[in-house]
């Protein structure tokens, strides 16, 4: 009998839900949230609000929840962990509620999945959460003992695209290949995945310039700016993540709008745009050096990888390293469903979350 898996993916202004029957998607809906969401002081206060909307959406689609085999939610900010599936348990839920500063919108999905699954007496999972960190020891050294390098962000989509590329384009198992995967979005991450493990990575706040992230900046001037008295801590963090990168220079992070400005002859916009591609290519080159250039494929993925202008600029600088595969978009729902199905079929074993 085919497995029926409910997928939950909460975002800042919407909640995506889907139902998969084995690998086939049979239901999909995006629930847009109104200004009512702004009335909540803490992200976890939205749990009941979003759960009611999810249940209503399933009923509207005439879906019977008792037919579900499992539920999978996008994993949020839990302690650094290995890749793969984690069965959601009370320890995870209690942790999520205990760490207010590390609250991530995806954590809402973990709690909703746990509550719904418990009522149905079925398992609930997260898969490749934001906190996946499998860096090799040498990649953790930052040069400052107080600051160990860690890996966060885009694990779900980058690993899914590497797995897909291995199977469909190379005819190999994921664990037999070496990939550099570049996730292009409002932030950019560059990951080196060898034999199924992300052994090195630049996260979206410590590498290249992106649409809304400053990327690496010189340390001394940054420290001086922090202590200049001009900005609060929150304002400085916003300069690095949220209002950095091209948004800081051009006042927008809308890629289509930026490309239109460039086509209309704005040379400054063109320079900043080229800097984004230039620094991204440099990060790819750095990752290639880690494995002496022994790369099967370089994958460009994420929403911004839909831009031919951007991918062309990046590809021309990195194609000498390895063939470049364009795999634009985000496939988080499919990746969660496929991962959960592998667990249900006994192809993978879910981790047990402990502290």
From TrEMBL:
Location in the cell reads:
Cytoplasm
The answer to keyword Transcription regulation applying to this record is no
Please give the catalytic activity noted in the UniProt record.
butanoate + ATP = butanoyl phosphate + ADP
Coarse class of the primary localization is cytoplasm
- What's a single GO CC term here? cytoplasm
Identify its protein family: Belongs to the acetokinase family.
What SUPFAM superfamilies does UniProt report for this protein, alphabetically? Actin-like ATPase domain
> Lineage in the entry?
Bacteria, Bacillati, Bacillota, Negativicutes, Selenomonadales
Which organism is this protein's natural source?
Answer: Dendrosporobacter quercicolus
Q: What is this protein called?
A: Probable butyrate kinase
Which terms in the Gene Ontology molecular function aspect does this entry carry? acetate kinase activity; ATP binding; butyrate kinase activity
Q: Which UniProt keywords apply?
A: ATP-binding, Cytoplasm, Kinase, Nucleotide-binding, Transferase
NCBIfam families attached here?
butyr_kinase (TIGR02707), PRK03011.1-5 (NF002834)
Q: Which InterPro entries match?
A: Aliphatic_acid_kin_short-chain, Aliphatic_acid_kinase_CS, ATPase_NBD, Butyrate_kin
Give EC number(s), comma-separated.
2.7.2.7
Q: Which GO terms describe its biological process?
A: acetate metabolic process
Q: What class of enzyme is it?
A: transferase
């Amino acid at each position: 009998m085919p497995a029926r898996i409910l997928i939950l993916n909460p975002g800042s202004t919407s909640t995506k839900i889907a139902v998969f029957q084995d690998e086939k998607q049979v239901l999909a809906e995006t629930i847009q949230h109104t200004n009512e969401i702004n009335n909540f002081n803490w992200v976890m206060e939205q749990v009941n609000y979003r759960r009611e909307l999810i249940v209503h959406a399933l009923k509207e689609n005439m879906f019977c929840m008792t037919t579900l085999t499992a539920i999978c939610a996008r994993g949020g900010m839990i302690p650094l962990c290995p890749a793969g599936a984690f069965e959601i348990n009370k320890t995870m839920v209690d942790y999520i509620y205990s760490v207010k500063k590390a609250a991530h919108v995806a954590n809402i999905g973990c709690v909703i999945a746990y509550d719904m699954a418990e009522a149905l007496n079925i398992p609930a999972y997260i898969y490749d959460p934001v906190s996946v960190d499998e860096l090799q020891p040498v990649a953790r050294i930052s040069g400052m003992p107080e600051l160990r390098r860690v890996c966060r962000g885009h694990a779900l989509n980058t690993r899914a695209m590497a797995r897909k590329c291995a199977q469909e384009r190379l005819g190999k198992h994921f664990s037999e290949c070496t990939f550099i995967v570049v996730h292009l979005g409002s932030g950019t991450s560059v990951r080196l995945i060898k034999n199924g493990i992300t052994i090195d990575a630049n996260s979206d706040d410590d590498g290249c310039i992106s649409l809304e992230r400053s990327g690496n900046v010189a340390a001394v001037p940054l420290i001086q700016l922090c202590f200049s008295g001009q900005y609060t801590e929150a304002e400085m963090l916003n300069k690095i993540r949220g209002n950095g990168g091209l948004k800081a220079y051009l006042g927008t992070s809308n890629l289509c709008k930026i490309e239109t400005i460039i086509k209309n002859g704005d040379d400054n916009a063109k320079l900043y745009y080229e800097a984004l591609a230039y620094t991204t290519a440099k990060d790819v080159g750095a990752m290639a050096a880690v494995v002496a250039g022994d790369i099967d494929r370089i994958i460009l993925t994420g929403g911004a990888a839909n831009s031919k202008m951007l991918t062309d600029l990046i590809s021309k600088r990195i194609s000498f390293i390895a063939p470049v595969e364009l795999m634009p978009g985000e496939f988080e729902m499919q990746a969660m469903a496929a991962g959960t199905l592998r667990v249900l079929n006994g192809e993978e074993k879910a981790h047990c979350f402990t502290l």
